[in-house]
Each structure stands twice: as C-alpha cells, then as structure tokens.
Specification:
Blueprint: E1 4-11, H1 16-23, E2 27-32, E3 37-45, H2 48-60, E4 65-71
Antiparallel strand pairs: 1-3, 1-4, 2-3
Amino acid sequence: MGTARYAFRIRGRASDEALAALQEELEVEVEVDPEWTSTAIRGWLPDQAALYGMLTRIRLLGLELLEVRRLPGPG
C-alpha cells in the first residue's frame, strides 16, 4: 500500500487527552459545523497495518468515528 495521507472525522470535541494520544502520529484540527461539532484528524500512515492500528486507537479512546478518507497524495 505505501505511505498515504488519511483524514479521520470524530463526532464531537475530543478530549485533550485523546487529542494528545492521537497527535503522536497525526496532526489534529478541530472543525465546527453549524449543525454539529467534529474533530478532524489528518496525517500520513506508512501502511495498512498502521491504518488498522489508528482505527483501533480511536476505538479504544472511546471516540465515535464518523468518516475515514484516503486523501490525494502530492502531485
């Protein structure tokens, strides 16, 4: 699969502790939508195993995952 950039959207405002745990590997950006608040988390993951690891980490932190997208690469 190779290195790829992903975007994860979490329902609501993630706690500071959860954001700190996720920031070890990804950049974190909080986005506010008129209808609801969500936390957008984006970053590069080296392979499919890292993607599954991030999905597991999100689940173990008790966060509600709304969306996962693979973002276009550079160029």
